[in-house]
Design goal:
The structure is a homodimer. Chain A has about 325 residues and is an alpha/beta fold. Chain A has 2 domains: about 160 residues, Medium-chain alcohol dehydrogenases, catalytic domain (Quinone Oxidoreductase, Chain A, domain 1, Alpha-Beta Complex), CATH 3.90.180; about 130 residues, NAD(P)-binding Rossmann-like Domain (Rossmann fold, 3-Layer(aba) Sandwich), CATH 3.40.50. Chain A is built from 10 helices and 17 strands. In chain A, helix 5 links the parallel strand 11 and strand 12. In chain A, helix 3 packs across helix 4. The model of chain A has no long low-confidence stretch (mean pLDDT about 95). Chains A and B meet through strand 14, helix 8 and strand 15 of A and strand 14, helix 8 and strand 15 of B.
């Protein structure tokens, strides 16, 4: 089969590799589409724990089961990219791994996964949309719903709109009946978010941007950036509010103003990926509200290098999908 | 009546002042004992928002109702030091104030407070113990129980043992059936905490003290210090654990390692004082478990300056009480 193969730092090729063989409890999914995540870019750049070369990256995939136990044969599926969460809903166990390293990933014509990772592809989604859902949807759902417990009528701020998790969080927040606002460094992306239903947005590249917003106004803030901008998010949180963070693409905050946190009774929630229960709840929520993940661009497998380059530039609004 | 009067930065005197007069809904409590908090020291040093001179400090008091509406007359009471919390359990409202600034406080022979601030003095407590309870008990209860929701059998770490809130948190944690550990800069204080029931303690003045503890071991961490030591607390939190912070006596942490928080699914809970519901639950918990606040030293009102000096040195183990 053909697959994206990473054989050294920033060495990406489309290679012919042996088709994967399922073991007990496993199935072969013949993929129709896969999607990229920041994780894939970091793996390509050699900046991820547990690297090994060569490897096939890719955590997101949708396709048809073509080998394995009878119950799933021929069914259209999406794949839960989080493996071996463990028994504790509060946190992943030490055996937790993510599809696409160390296990061979979805940027290939076929992938082998344990049958328990499968869910039926939501019928209202195209293959591209279905492939765009798993990792971003799971991460956004746990952050916003399981961890921050967003309630209807609350005001939510989502930083860095345009990224896959941020956009899923926006769509989930709107479906939950919240009033959603966004931040971005791009006026275009803010405008696109408003078209999706956001009430408005803030350009965080403007000096003192957070002063133009009223302080103390957001019940829930969803952030995947961290970095120097995190302090402004603390200022914008309503007293008693929750800030949920699922990443630090801008690095660590250079400080932490404790008094703002304790005096204003804030809660800061770390979150990453999600449990099998989060996964099941997310897929059901997407089906119930007929949510369609935003797909920014679709590339054929042969042009996977261009898909990676687009994500490296940060030019996308939504998920970058690879079609098999 | 006689009272501690602060008339300028670090100017403390025992003065004869007019006895307070109750308005509608208010009572006069003739105090038998009062207790100090860090807040009083900061007010004396001129380091507190909303300062006014002269003022009578003191948030903690226990005594007998000697004037006001009939229902409370003659009863032995303690005083909830948090006024006007408001309707939202998640956070205090903008009208929230603490007894002892701007309202005249308890370091006096009498104090006037709204009747709704009163609770019956728990029968198992001496006057000194009763005066030691309110502010520290309320703060510790909200932090440990309402916010961190400590469960029986969990492992809890309490930083800076010896302070009033930390000691109440230790006693509450033990009553809740948790396994409690402490930190201190003093081996003596750790030994005293172990006598109270702590399993053990760590001297945070030792370099790399937190490396001598196993990482990832505490389900709940209670901290009122912040500062450079906060990072070590993050390392000691179990994945999925909660760190509740109620103060920053050591200043702000100089950084914030976001990845440790999101990847390990930590929750950081800011907490301060407590609601009327927290107050009622705390008093009931203290009565049910017959908890006696630790009193470090008792001074007569005439020696209130020495009581402040002891707190300024940080030499206490438990509450510093002033007897009227």
């Amino acid at each position: 089969m053909r697959a994206v193969r990473l054989s050294a730092v920033n060495r990406l090729e489309i290679a012919e590799v042996p088709a994967p063989v399922p073991a007990g409890g496993e199935v072969v999914v013949t993929l129709r589409a896969a999607a990229l995540n920041h994780r894939d870019v970091w793996i390509k750049a050699g900046q991820y724990a547990g690297l090994k070369w060569p490897c096939i990256p890719g955590s997101d995939g949708a396709g048809v089961v073509t080998s394995g136990e009878a119950g799933w044969l021929g069914r259209e599926v999406i794949i839960n990219p989080g493996f071996n969460w463990g028994a504790d809903e509060h946190r992943q166990g030490t055996d937790f791994t993510i599809l696409g390293l160390p296990m061979e990933g979805t940027l290939a014509e076929q992938v082998v996964v344990p049958q328990i990772q499968l869910a039926s592809k939501p019928a209202h989604l195209s293959w591209e949309e279905a492939a765009a859902l798993p990792l971003a949807g799971l991460t956004a759902y746990r952050a916003l719903m399981t961890r921050a417990k967003l309630q209807p009528g609350e005001r939510v701020l989502i930083s860095g709109i345009g990224g896959g998790v941020a956009l899923m969080a926006l769509q989930f927040a709107l479906a939950q009946g919240a009033e959603a606002w966004v931040t971005s460094g791009s006026a275009d992306k803010i405008a696109q978010a408003v078209e999706l239903g956001a009430r408005g947005g803030f350009d965080y590249t403007l000096p003192y941007w957070s002063k133009t917003a009223s302080p103390d106004q957001f019940n829930v803030i969803v952030d995947g950036a961290g970095g120097p901008g995190f302090e402004a998010l603390i200022d914008l949180a309503a007293p008693g509010g929750r800030i949920v963070n699922y990443g630090a693409t801008r690095g660590n905050p250079p400080g932490f103003t404790m008094r703002k946190v304790f005096w204003r009774q804030l809660t800061i929630l770390g979150s990453t990926m999600g449990s099998p229960a989060d996964w099941a709840a997310m897929v059901a929520f997407v089906e119930r509200h007929r949510i369609k993940p935003v797909v920014s661009e679709v590339f054929p497998l042969a042009q996977a290098a261009e898909a990676f380059a687009l994500m490296e530039r940060g030019g996308q609004f939504g998920k970058i999908v690879v079609r098999m």
